[in-house]
Amino acid sequence: MKRFIQGEHRGQETFLPASLDDYVTDANPVRVVDVFVDELDLVKLGFEGAIPADTGRPAYHPAILLKIYIYGYLNRIPSSRRLEREAQRNVELMWLTGRLMPDFKTIANFRKDNSKAIRGVCRQFVVLCQQLGLFEENLVAIDGSKFKAVNNRDRNFTSAKLKRRMEEIESSINRYLTALDETDRQEPSVAQPKAARLQEKIDKLKAQMKELQVIETQLNESPDKQVSLTDPDARSMMTRGTGIVGYNVQTAVDTQHHLIVAHEVTNVGSDRDLLSSMAKQAREAMASDTLSVVADRGYFKSEQILACHDAGITAYVPKPMTSGAKADGRFNNDAFIYDAAKNEYICPAGEALIWRFSSVEKGLTLHRYWSSNCQGCVLKSKCTPSKQRRVRRWEHEAVLEEMQNRLSNAPDM
């Protein structure tokens, strides 16, 4: 191998062995992890084993296991078995742990037994970022991600799925019973073994039916009419056109440095009811009096935007374009201009839609407006197939209109 850069011979001994510290540069993130964890009060945060027992076998200090956990998070190594291997061969982890090599069970149990304390560490990290002035813009982006649970689809039940499964079992039992009747007309030497096999299958199906009846009772008692047998908190939810059994993890991220400010694991499949709660958590974590949040159309819900407004949080959420009138080639509600002084709408033909009455629907107070001149209007075919075009207005519609104006003036959002 002439004229190539040559490495050292593996058997070559060195007079002064290189220090492990020489292999970790000054800018390596593991140095930040090391200092950050060493400054934490693990006893106050509630880590198990932070105070050693007087007797028994010595355990690993929680700080060592927490450093391994954070290292795995930063380097996308979630598996405890992979972290065990990395501790045995990874120079950065050797430096971080002082060449300690806990087994995968120890790492897994640490995560399982200290989930609440680890959330406290996340809060401490947010406090540190705040002290370093990393949240000066007071603008966060909120979004949700679907995480698959260990729970298999077959171990998750809804009313429709349970009913379908029961019908399948009943159909199978009837089919086996019919086959059992047919065996009675066959020769005993052939019929008896076959009948025994059929009866065994029938007994198994009946046992499954009893299990499903127990699940049906649990299903009726469940608030959201779902039961997951492996992960009780997991729920069936849609993601990218298909269904999974898992969790909807909500995250609020600082838009300047892309740091996670707040997070929450939910089993609610839709994001529509989660905007204000996540915005309030982010503001509390950032210890800020003011906050602006941006989210996609999946978070648009009138009550949630009003809750943000009442809390002093500025929201930027685009309105879903789901107008049935516009899809049919007719004017949608945006074509009607509201006159706050007169409390009436002006239609594209210039007619006034005056207030008629108010009603409460799903807890929302809605005002109704329409004109008496729709029958003779030349634009009626482009407006409505009914006698009059009626427009509804929520009592807090001004809050939504204010937000849409903000979006129009801030296209970067």
Question: SSE order in H/E notation?
Answer: HHHHHHHEEHHEEEEHEHEHEEEEEH
Number of helices: 13
Mean pLDDT: 89
Q: How much beta, percentage-wise?
A: 15-25%
Low-confidence stretches: none
Number of strands: 13
The shape, in one word, is flat
Detailed description of the structure:
By secondary structure, the protein is α+β, with helices and mostly antiparallel strands. The protein has helices at residues 29-38, 42-45, 62-74, 80-89, 91-97, 104-113, 115-131, 159-183, 188-221, 275-286, 302-310, 324-327, 397-409, and strands spanning 139-148, 156-158, 226-228, 235-239, 242-254, 260-266, 291-294, 313-316, 337-339, 344-346, 352-361, 364-370, 391-394. The strands form 3 sheets. Strands 1, 4, 5, 6, 7 and 8 form a 6-stranded mixed β-sheet that branches. A hairpin with a 2-residue loop joins strand 11 and strand 12. Helix 3 (62-74) crosses helix 6 and helix 8 (159-183) runs antiparallel to helix 9 (188-221). The longest helix has 34 residues, at 188-221. It is flat, with a radius of gyration of 32 Å. The two termini are 58 Å apart.
